[in-house]
Automatic annotation (TrEMBL):
It comes from the Bacteria. InterPro entries: TusA-like, TusA-like_sf. It comes from Corallococcus exercitus. Belongs to the sulfur carrier protein TusA family. Residues 7-31 form the UPF0033 domain. This is Sulfurtransferase TusA family protein. The lineage of its organism: Bacteria, Pseudomonadati, Myxococcota, Myxococcia, Myxococcales. PANTHER family: SULFUR CARRIER PROTEIN TUSA (PTHR33279:SF2), SULFUR CARRIER PROTEIN YEDF-RELATED (PTHR33279). GO terms for molecular function: transferase activity. Keywords: Transferase. The keyword Protein transport does not apply. PROSITE patterns: UPF0033.
């Protein structure tokens, strides 16, 4: 899946991955696809909850070994 922006928060724990994707989203145009990479397993619950709260769309979530990867499309 080809994302317009990749945010890699590997090695950081909650709440850093969500804070970093939120920061990235603020400067992007609506419809932009963002790939978030994390080693924090909490991302599996945190990212869908954040998308629900903000209106952004969780396109896909997957696990790649020790990494959790989510693709989010900016609302608007």
């Amino acid at each position: 899946m080809e994302a317009g922006v990749r945010v890699d928060t590997s090695g950081a724990l909650c709440p850093v991955p969500i804070l970093e994707i939120a920061k990235a989203m603020r400067r992007l145009a609506p419809g932009t696809l963002v790939e978030l990479v994390s080693t924090d397993r909490g991302l599996e619950a945190d990212l869908p909850a954040w998308c629900d709260a903000t209106g952004n769309t969780l396109v896909r979530m997957e696990r790649r070994g020790a990494h959790y990867v989510g693709w989010v499309r900016k609302a608007g």
